[in-house]
Design brief:
Elements lengths: L3 E8 L7 E8 L5 E6 L10 E4 L4 E4 L1 E6 L15 H13 L3 H17 L2 E8 L3 H9 L2 E8 L7 H15 L7 E7 L7 H14 L3 E5 L3 H9 L3 H8 L12 H7 L7 E5 L5 H10 L2 E4 L1 H6 L7 H6 L3 E4 L4 H4 L4 H12 L3 H7 L2 H6 L17 E4 L10 H6 L6 E6 L2 E5 L5
Parallel strand pairs: 1-4, 1-5, 6-7, 7-8, 8-9, 10-11, 11-12, 12-13
Antiparallel strand pairs: 1-2, 2-3, 5-14, 14-15, 15-16
Helix pairs in contact: 2-3, 4-5, 13-14
This protein binds zinc ion (ZN).
The site of zinc ion has 6 residues, from loops.
């Protein structure tokens, strides 16, 4: 790939102040070689140079929680009964063939790029997303899911997971990593959590868990009651052991919480839980619009940030949220956490990179990092606002172009 030089009216490096009439130079290795005022960034011969006029150039967005294999399964607003929704989703997934999962994953990745997202943290069990990332030259962590609420299934589930991770190893490398995701406390036994966490630790694999999402999950773990508990009883599954813990405490007592653990949702958390999460040093995937759509409540974003947790934003699946619009999540997070536009934008760039352990590689426009960027042309109605506020007021329809490692992966209109 020849190098690439991009210029625009505004450059928002995120890790550094905004630059009016800024530019970036990306080398043939895909890494940033220069960034700053247009007049100071070199024009080496042979480099593809492009100016985006009055647009805003910023780091590619980091979506820390997707389920791209579910692309195309969107269907209106989720119902109020979360356990029933989970069961419906499971039966709809069971109807999909491997080819359909792969097509969905490819379509979902293209949707991410079209929305200015260049890195994803994805959970799924089909293996389609890591294949899509690898073959399309994308960037992300694909967390392979494992399920098994009955303790007697534990060994079989772990062996299945280990086999899948080994088989998917052929897609790992470059900018694609694999992790594991013991799905959620209502689909995974305590034993399976413990052995999966221990194995992930041995293999230095990152872990993602859906945690403290719905009141029904808390009911299951604290009292062995509620919608999930009823479903378990119907399938002859013994209640979680030990009972009487919050979801966060329960995962902690199975050795799951640590610096390589990404906790998704964290809505139903007490101040004691937050202390525990903070001591464990976990990362957080905050999904405000999914939480709202399911009526789970709101995560205490301000508190999660104030104790220094690494928080990124996630859209969750299209089945929960409807669209993969990370800037809409950032607007919701700004309201929830009392954040200004810069802080909200940091959540979906540099802070998301930190949550995925990729802060040395991506998340800001800085020399040495990957040349991942999005070009956004906000609507005229935002003209009076500062550049970060204009980006925050934008959406996928305002994304003009997206680059991964300097490679052109999306154009709103064909290159002239
Ligand atoms: Zn999810």
């Amino acid at each position: 790939m020849p190098g690439r030089r991009l210029a625009a009216r505004w450059l928002l490096p995120v890790e550094g102040p905004a630059v009016e009439r800024g530019a970036i130079l990306i080398g043939s290795d895909g890494r940033i070689e220069a960034v700053g005022a247009d007049a100071t960034v070199p024009h080496p011969p042979g480099v593809v140079a492009e100016s985006f006029g009055d647009a805003i150039l910023l780091p590619g967005l980091v979506n820390t929680h997707t389920h791209l294999e579910l692309t195309g399964l969107a269907e209106g607003v989720p119902g109020h009964d979360f356990p029933a929704w989970v069961r419906r989703l499971r039966s709809r997934k069971a109807e999909r063939s491997p080819e359909e999962f792969l097509a969905a994953a490819r379509g979902g990745l293209a949707d991410c790029w079209a929305a200015g997202v260049t890195t994803i943290g994805d959970t799924g069990d089909s293996g389609a997303v890591i294949e899509a990332l690898s073959t399309a030259g994308g960037c992300g962590v694909a967390y392979q899911e494992v399920f098994g609420p009955h303790p007697a299934q534990c060994e079989e589930s772990l062996a299945g997971l280990q086999g899948r991770v080994e088989a998917l190893g052929r897609f790992v490398g470059g900018r694609v990593a694999i992790g594991v995701s013991p799905h959620a406390p209502y689909t995974v036994s305590g034993r399976l959590y413990a052995v999966t966490a221990a194995w992930a630790d041995e293999e230095a694999l990152p872990v993602a868990v859906h945690l403290a999402e719905s009141p029904a999950e808390t009911e299951l773990l604290t009292h062995g009651e509620g919608g999930f508990a009823e479903a378990w009883r119907g399938r002859g599954i013994p209640p979680p052991a030990p009972l009487g813990r919050s979801p966060v405490e329960w995962l902690d007592c199975h050795g799951v919480l640590g610096e390589r653990t990404l906790c998704i949702h964290l809505v139903q958390v007490t101040s004691g839980d937050i202390g525990l999460l903070s001591r464990a040093g976990v990362a957080v995937a905050h999904c405000p619009l999914s939480n709202r759509a399911h009526r789970h409540g709101a995560a205490p974003l301000d508190v999660l940030l104030s104790v220094g947790l690494r928080v990124g934003l996630g859209t969750d699946s299209v089945v929960s949220g409807g669209t993969l619009d990370l800037l809409a999540e950032a607007r919701a997070a700004a309201v929830l956490g009392g954040l200004d536009a810069e802080a909200a934008l940091a959540l979906c760039t540099v802070s998301g990179a930190r949550a995925l352990g990729l802060e040395r590689e991506i998340g800001g426009l800085r020399v040495g990092k990957w040349g991942d960027c999005a070009v956004i042309r906000p609507g005229r109605a935002t003209a009076g606002l500062a550049p970060a506020a204009r980006v925050l007021a934008s959406g996928p329809h305002d994304v003009v172009a997206t680059f991964v490692g300097g490679r052109d992966v999306h154009r709103a209109e064909p290159m002239s």
